Every structure is written in C-alpha cells, then in structure tokens.
Amino acid sequence: MKKLLRILVVDDTKFIRDLVSKTIRTRYPEMMIDEAQNGRQAQSMLQKNEYALVLCDWEMPEMSGIDLLQWIRGTPALEDQPFIMVTSLDEKEHVVEAVQKGVNDYMAKPFSGEQLITKMMKTLVKTGKVSREEYAGMGRKERVTSGADAMSLLTGGMAASPSKPTNSKKRRGALGKALLMYNETRQTVIVRDITTEEVSLVVRCADGLPGLAQHVRMGLVAGDEQNPAKVTAAGFVMMMQLAEKKPESESAVVKVQFANEEREVREQLSEVVSILRRG
C-alpha cells in the first residue's frame, strides 16, 4: 500500500495555486493536495490535518508566509513541519529571514515545474517524510516535461508544443515565465517574446492589469535549473491590448519597454534573453 502524502499549497492567487497543484498531481497523482488562500486559513487547516509538506508564498493578506512559518515553529505539535517558502527574485533579505525562522528550503519566482518537483521531493526525503526507496517507486517515471511540458502546466496550456519548431521572425506560444511587479502587485505572467529592449507578455485579466505607462519591474529566469541566469529589470508599460477581439477575453498582451539600466543589469538581461530565445 502506497503512503498517502498530503501537501498544503498556500498562495493568495488562485491561478498560482491551481498551477502548482496541477504540476504536483501530474507527476505524483497519488498525492493529496489541499489549498489555502492565506496564512490564516492555512493555520486552521494545519490544526486539523497532518501535512507532509507546506508550499507557501511570502506575501499574503491576513497572515503572511513568514508569520505562518513563525507560528508553526512555535507550535510544539508542528515545530518539525516541512516548509518551503516561495520568494521573489529581488527579495534576498527575505530568504535570509526565512532561513533564520526555520524554513526547510525556498524557491524564487518564477520557477519551472521541474524545479518545483525537485525542491519538493528533496525536502520530503531530507525530512524523512519519504524514504529513498519509496521515492524511487513513486509517481510517473517520465519527467514533468513529457506529455504535457512544464510550461504548459504552469501557463494553463498556452505554451507551444516543443515538437513544433519556431523561428525568430514568427514565434508561437511562450518562451518562458516571468514575474511582473508593480505597486504591491506580483503576477506570474507568460513571456511571448523578448529582446534586450522590450518584452511582450501574456497576462491573465482576472489577475489584474497594470496601467499604460505604469512603471514596472520584471523578474526573469532562464537556463539550467541548478545554476539559472536571473535578472530583475525596470521598465514601463508601452502597449496593452486584449489577446482576443472580444470584451470577455481572459488574457491581455502587455508590452514592456526596458529602462536604461546599469551595466551589470544590462549584461544579466542580455544573458537571459539569449537563453530564452534559443529555447
């Protein structure tokens, strides 16, 4: 009989919760996934159920991820609860604080489906929730990227199939994901096309849209999962239109013009763009 592993996904954005849950279920259909929209709801669920792992966002209303972690470590019955914190690319001080508060591991947004699975299973094995023998016999043997690729899982199926070649003049689907940041908003979006001058994004309307000429920051990551290229670049919204020619369109195309940055940021952006466009 297989061990029942229950995972708690905590994020105030339903879209992200759905994508993370779908990624886990695709690789490990035997796992049970529960979802909470903030730390307070997660707190209540942790008092009622036993979880093998908590995957938690940092910034949430009512109770933040760091406050939930602190409460868990201060509760005798939960002090050993495995906990992975999700942070933004530019929040290095938050990572340090999370480690000091007792986080088992952390992930920077945006991340791929394979990165999520790798972090999750590493923590489950390290904390003894899953033995190495059990790990070897769990889940589907193919990687997350087979059958339904990781980008498809994390973008609601909007990515192009990797079996269909594209060229630089006419690209289809997605090149990757990014974190779009403005005011207090952080959104995981799809990168449709990118150069060192500008980036074209697909944004879900339900998650909210930035304003025209809105100053934003883009968190981008690309390359090898163990040593990815990352950059956080500033810019402004220069164009925005619905993805479909109808008012009920579920997504919008947002074009961001990158601002003139210091040399180090320009070099980091150039590296990320090069990797993403190579596909």
UniProtKB/TrEMBL annotation:
The modification 4-aspartylphosphate is found at residue 57. It comes from the Bacteria. Residues 6-124 form the Response regulatory domain. Transmembrane segments: none annotated. Pfam families: Response_reg (PF00072). InterPro entries: Bact_response_regulator, CheY-like_superfamily, Sig_transdc_resp-reg_receiver. The keyword Phosphoprotein applies. The keyword Phosphoprotein applies. GO terms for biological process: phosphorelay signal transduction system. Keywords: Phosphoprotein. Gene3D superfamilies: 3.40.50.2300. This is Response regulatory domain-containing protein. The lineage of its organism: Bacteria, Pseudomonadati, Pseudomonadota, Gammaproteobacteria, Oceanospirillales.
